[in-house]
Amino acid sequence: MKALLQNSGGVTKNVKVGFSWTTFFFGFFPALFRGDLKWAVIMLVVEAVLGSFTLGIGAWISGVVFAFVYNKIYIKELIEKGYSPANEEARTLLVNNQILSKVA
Length: 104
Known about the structure:
Layout: E1 2-6, E2 12-16, H1 21-26, H2 29-33, H3 37-53, H4 57-80, E3 84-85, H5 88-96
Antiparallel strand pairs: 1-2, 1-3
């Protein structure tokens, strides 16, 4: 499922809602390619620290956790930066996935 977000300048972003398969398979690289440097560094550090203490198993587990939450985090940060749903379909999708509240 994808939602279309738009800022006041007319720039649109088509963002995926839900589980992030790219984060699951590629770790911090999707965040890096999206220009989300803060979360790319956070994921890299968490995976490196947990992986070093658990012979790599901790990095895999944190990768699974980030795959479940990263798209939601990314969308919320875009909304904080001034993006909003571009249409009613996108708004409904974000409300149903508990990213936006019904009154927003």
